[in-house]
User: What shape does this take?
Amino acid sequence: MRKKILFDTDPGVDDAAALLFLQKHPDIELVGITTVFGNSDIDRVTRNALYLKERFGVTAPVARGAAAPLVRQPGPAPVMVHGENGLGDVSVPDMEAIATDPRPAWQFIIDMLRQNPGEITIVAVGRMTNLALALAEAPDIVDLVREVVIMGGAFAVSGHNGNVTPVAEANIIGDPHAADIVFSARWPVVAVGLDVTRQVLVTTQDLELLARKGGETGRLLADISEGYMRFYDRFGAGGFYLHDASAAALAIDRSLFGMRAGPVRVVTNGIAAGQTIQRDNSLPYPPNAWDGAPDQEVCVAIDAARVKALVMDTLLG
Ligand code: BDR
Ligand code: CA
Assistant: This one.
């Protein structure tokens, strides 16, 4: 039986790669797409999701999600990374003729989990606002989900820190209160953070290969990634990081990753807002803010070559 995935996303250049990777993978049944503000505003990311659905024959419905963080003021959209329209400024048609699901994303998530108890893995690769809203409305969903895989966080493993501030990763600082709720809920979370996603590099040669041999999917991904590549070139990274598709890869094959367990809390205010901190349960701390929070898994190792091969082979297949 194929694995059911509900994809919560803010497309987003690397979100688009992750979505099309999941859509093409034979072991995956994409059962829903929920959108959230982030890489662009909620109108644009929802339009982008509808565009990808329509163009690539995705049958899963798209439900529109949160337009702003739970508590903090929304920050500016990262136009220097994902372009003004969120998809590298390639032309995206007006999608008004295609309807979104009538339910808001949080309600769609609740309904899907209740209809498929124990079967759905949520792969969330944007701000975690929709998930936090679903938890607030229906706390029972913690027992209904199979697993929650998130792309988010920076845990200072192997010297990898934040990408928005020295300690904060974009999806977490975009709504730190929501992220803290998601990590603190009694459901199984796996965090695929910058510690591991920064090890999966897509090069210009990879994009050329996708454009040449990856059909319509490869050509679109190569087109939307041009500006994304230029952004990363400025740091001399030698390519761009495959953040969101790495989380999707974990949902398909967790043996490609190494994890450690322990409660995770998120700093919600002050100069360290957005920092994700996992407690080492082997150390004898006095009472602290991690007490009572459930153990969650954080990725500390990755077989980057195999993750990249899984994604590339699927997209090229
Ligand atoms: C995350 O932020 C966004 O720019 C990407 O889509 C990814 O989900 C990386 O920090
Ligand atoms: Ca994303």
Summary: The two ends are 21 Å apart (CA to CA). The chain is about 35% helix and 20% strand.
